[in-house]
């Protein structure tokens, strides 16, 4: 049976698609992986012919059809403001990853996503991931403290704002950037541990 990983946040610009791509790429080294691209922008769908290690599916069908796909892991990349379908996707997901930047507006915007997850009783199946983080700033700590009120799991691994991550979709992964690969490996381990 597939493990379904929903990548969602009601705010745009937090790096959902890039994080989805990189986690799928990393996990596909040892497993069969697909990404369902629900984003109308079709960012990931537009590169599906360039990807060889996993499948990218522009998703247009019914949500419950996700369960019939035969992969070890299915990532679902969502657009911002998918509020009508999001409760159903949250229920189907084995893990909900909420990427966020370390910014005040991101902290304010994450509340609606977390409330949807709490309404579906899936808080323990969730993981906030700090994504595109600037190094050596106290703002990340401030946002971590701000997130404590939501009582939701937060990944120990933070993904930095590295060019290797930005470029990864074009070159098939983080390439030879050891720092980026190390961060991605640590986050992948956290994700897989959460799924077990």
Describe the structure.
By secondary structure, the chain is α/β, with parallel strands linked by helices. Helix content is 36%, strand content 15%. The protein contains six helices and six strands. A six-stranded parallel beta sheet has the order 3-2-4-1-5-6, sandwiched between helices. Strand 5 (95-100), helix 3 and strand 6 form a beta-alpha-beta unit. Helix 1 (16-27) packs across helix 5. The chain is globular.
Distance between the termini: 13 Å
Low-confidence stretches: none
What structural class do you assign from the helix and strand content?
Answer: alpha/beta
Task: Specify the number of helices.
Answer: 6
**Percentage beta strand:** 15-25%
Helix proportion range: 25-40%
Question: What is the radius of gyration?
Answer: 15 Å
Instruction: Give the rounded overall mean pLDDT.
Output: 90
Morphology: globular
One letter per element, helices H and strands E, the order comes to: EHEEEHEHEHHH
Largest sheet: 6 strands, parallel
What are the defining features of this structure?
196 residues, alpha/beta, six-stranded parallel beta sheet, 15% strand, globular
Compact summary:
The protein is an alpha/beta fold and 196 residues long. 36% of the residues lie in helices and 15% in strands.
